[in-house]
Amino acid sequence: MRKPKTRAALLAGLLLTASALAGVNPPTARAAADPVTVTVNTRAGLATVPDTALGVNHAIWDSNLGTSETSDLLRDAGVQMMRYPGGSYADIYHWKDHTAPGGYVAPGTDFDTFMAAVRRVGAQPMIIANYGTGTPAEAADWVRYANVTKGYDARYWTVGNENYGNGHYGSAWEADDHPDKSATQYARLVVEYADAMKAVDPSIKVGAVLTMPGNWPDGITAGSDPGPWNQTVLSIAGPKIDFVDVHWYPGGTAAESLARVNHLPDATYLLRQQLARYAGPNADRIGISFTELNVDAGRNTQPAALFLADVYSGLLENGVFTAHWWNVHNGMGTVTQVAGQTDYGDFGMLSSGACTEDGSVCQPPLNTPFAPYHGLSMMKLFAKTGDQFVRAGTDEPLVTAHAVRRSNGDLAVLLVNKDPDNDHPVTIDYAGFTPSAVAPTVSTLTNGATGIVTSQSGSATSRTLPAYSLTTLVLRPAGATAGRPAAPGQPTASGVTDRAATITWPASTPGASPIAKYEVHRQNGAVSEQLGETASTSFTVGNLVPGSRYTVNVLARDTAGRVSWASPPLTFATGSPAASTCTVRFTTANDWGNGYIGGVEIINNGSRPINGWTLTWTWPTAWQQVSSGWSATWEQVGTAVRVTPTTDNRQIAAGGTVSAGFVGAYGGPNVLPTAFTLNGTICATG
């Protein structure tokens, strides 16, 4: 959490002393020479937008938490979930007497006032139970007051906030009065909290705090814990929780923050892998929330608006049930110039009306929307409850695309131009959707704008995106959509090997005509590859690549040729052969958060010695690498790793082994390889 530290800081403008204004006037935007190709593929279905999607944080040190003006602004921006009592303050907050020893509590911020604001906005609450200085009994009493006494029907309750920041890993900002500050102790108490809270109201959902894959302290094991934070918490508390809660501040420059949004598919994939591996039976019932998001550079200006729209879309299309901005009001930080606009370094999306301590720089009047507020408003226009995200992509890293398909047949496309200097012309190709000739509804947020401009103009297939802008197109389909079959249900995979998998799904409900067949499509970026078709509700896919991740959808086609929406996505990974003439054991140890000591052991399962060998694998992401190595010659080109022997270990005897080590590094989620090739043969893994 990013929060004010003292009452004095709040009253003086909340947070940091401002620096002098710096920067120059922005250059005039110019059009890039080559059009960007955008591909929108409605056959490649992703997650459906939930009614909790768009969230924000409210904090008890914000005296405007309960005002009608603030609530009405949040309602107008489409807020669906509101978190309370405010990040790290949650671990010092006692709800019964509305106190936070060591922190500042503003008037008019008690729980009932917060719930009145939630109801005025039309949102749902996300409440943080005090882990750091509280007890399970205190949390249970809060549930009783909220849902039994007051009838608020508060469904979502998280146990603590960033509790890995309690000093267990060497850095301490989170209050924690427990003598034992280990991940193991946190997990044990989560179980006690969940039991006590659900004894009062069994219908609530209880969440536990996890770390973001690829971000500190992910991967680090401390003290006597059996593994890193996520593994430890899930292994103990997994059967008792209903969701996990993650925060992400990507850091860096504006350009770096915007680029790191591409970490999200792998981060959510790793979180689900961790849930499946450690959280016990039926782990797929456990949801994922991201309840703090913000940037370091351009918090009040266009980088934050672009990041908000891009990261909310990226999380929601990957099945996260809510994404929250930190926060509504926060206060003055370091004042800079960002792309020609004054940035106050304020984590809030609405102005606090604060000034620097010397009064030389003041924010706009209280509740003036900053750029991320407009980014949230764009999300309201783009992704509505019940819409299904579909795959969209571009051939230009500075332009990203997201798309949703609506129940009435419309398609909405969100285009993000992250280039601060250049307009980008785009051409848009559609797969599985034909837009009508009617001009689309176009909503645009440009750099420095005080709001979104909406019109009906231009073409569905080409336009120019202004520099540093958000653009949403809403398109009508060319033909009638009535009578099509319903989408097939959630597919599952069984019998997954290195080369094959059986996909099974619930049948589609016919529309105007009987179902003729089902088509199984693989997502390959924004392009679909049809893997096969069948008249039944099961299909075995062959010729898969070992050690690869596959996301597939099933579509139903009826006897009249009408095609359903895509099913929900199914993601699975192939492994290595069950048996081979070689086995590779890949190990990691001593992870320090962005690197580790790695090792490979090669076993010759054959009856003859191997004289000279080459081991190869491909990293799953572009931000993984071999930094150095020993006992072999290590080479990496792109994501491909090549390991060859020294003169001492060229030969591997029949039944024998050789080993080599390396220093691995990663700058994002560390998805480990699962397929290795020795002299052209795919090895088993041990």
Write the layout of secondary structure elements.
Elements: H1 7-12, E1 30-31, E2 36-48, E3 54-57, H2 68-76, E4 81-84, H3 111-121, E5 124-129, H4 136-149, E6 156-159, H5 183-200, E7 205-209, H6 229-237, E8 243-248, H7 254-259, H8 264-278, E9 287-293, H9 302-317, E10 322-325, E11 336-338, E12 341-343, H10 371-382, E13 388-394, E14 399-405, E15 411-417, E16 422-431, E17 441-445, E18 453-456, E19 462-465, E20 469-475, E21 492-494, E22 501-504, E23 515-524, E24 527-534, E25 538-541, E26 549-558, E27 570-573, E28 582-589, E29 595-604, E30 610-611, E31 615-618, E32 624-630, E33 633-637, E34 640-644, E35 651-652, E36 657-666, E37 677-678, E38 681-682, E39 684-685
Parallel strand pairs: 1-16, 2-16, 3-4, 3-10, 4-5, 5-6, 6-7, 7-8, 8-9, 9-10, 28-39
Antiparallel strand pairs: 2-13, 11-12, 13-14, 14-15, 15-20, 16-19, 17-18, 17-20, 21-22, 22-25, 23-24, 23-26, 26-27, 28-29, 29-36, 30-35, 31-34, 31-37, 32-36, 33-34, 37-38
Helix pairs in contact: 2-3, 4-5, 5-6, 9-10
